[in-house]
Amino acid sequence: MATELKVDTDPAEVGFDARRLDRIEGHFGRYVDDGRLPGWLAVVSRRGKIAYVARRGHRDVEAGLPVEMDTRWRIFSMTKPITSVAVMVLYEEGAFELTDPIARWLPEFAEPRVFVKGSALKPVTEPATEPIRVWHLLTHTAGLTYGFHHAHPVDAIYRANGFEWGTPPGADLAECTRRWAELPLVFQPGAEWNYSVATDVLGRLVEVVSGQPLDEFFARRIFEPLGMGNTGFATDSTDKFAALYVPDPGTGKAVRNEAFGRSGLEKPACLSGGGGLVSTAADYHRFTQFLLNRGELDGVRLLGPRTVDLMTSNHLPGGVDLEAYGRPLFAEMPFHGFGFGLGFSVLTDPVKAKTLSSEGEFAWGGAASTAFWVDPAAEITALFFTQLLPSSTHPIRQYLRQLVYQAVVD
């Protein structure tokens, strides 16, 4: 079990200019100096070797506690790739096909209805023309949504039912899934892309198919084999736990948020496969190495290489990007030049995306401004951890890409 991160290679040995990598600390150090971020930790590796680790600021500003290598972070939607891996572990065992209707295991989705007109108070719906299938959930094309979007009457229906930034008090994953199934879809399954609770529904699918609670499946089938001993639905070390911050509307400086900040302190009623995990940089780094190695880490194989390749290919019809197929709403990645696979964004056109990264890069991020990406072509992985909600506050991910790739000199 890895609890410490440290540079284990000369950056030049893996094609980096060390002085150029130091620009990462110089750039993001200013975010701490001027109060935009409480603190952060960044990790860059190449060819399986850690070439750069930097940290600045505090995990808890008010208590004066610094960011440390084993700080516990709420990773929110960086939970989604882990849930998607769990689904594909079961897929490889022959538990289902990707085209199977989810109603086979979740009968509450047997007769979904789709919003066609009206309002949140008086919606007019029609029957879905095809069932929601497993791959619809993996690709966010099922027609589900999030209450926090504030862009469609169905979003308002979600909020009215207790689903905005969380779930109704006391409702477990099974109950939440039943309630989502009762709400109308935003569009016909497969017709568009919309960031949604789909991955939470996948978490419930894992529970039903495996016969295990989601936290137990994660622990036994993913975290223990990969040595991710500090990852779970609640922190295992409250004294290492980072506080959560939001930007002050007037000054832009990070201010503590106690309401959302309680998430991760204890096991929640709803085990959210879409956003419920707490982790460390070391643990999630191991997860990215497992992905870079196409399903294997330190002699332990959880997925076959072809499965990882399928997951990290663009599944949007016609090979289009999210700009062409997605709703122009919030997501954890840009839309231009990025498609979507089975649980990851997939870079399809670096020129259109205006990025130095490589075609085929896959990635995702979390609501508190955490992020990761894996670049198979360049054999690079990068991670960034902080606790500022929402992730749209600063263009951290775009700058991190610039700063990592400008340091590649081979």
UniProtKB/TrEMBL annotation:
It holds the Pfam family Beta-lactamase. Residues 26-403 form the Beta-lactamase-related domain. SUPFAM superfamilies: beta-lactamase/transpeptidase-like. Gene3D superfamilies: DD-peptidase/beta-lactamase superfamily. InterPro entries: Beta-lactam-related, Beta-lactam/transpept-like, Diverse_Enzym_Activities. It comes from the Bacteria. This is Beta-lactamase. It comes from Amycolatopsis methanolica 239.
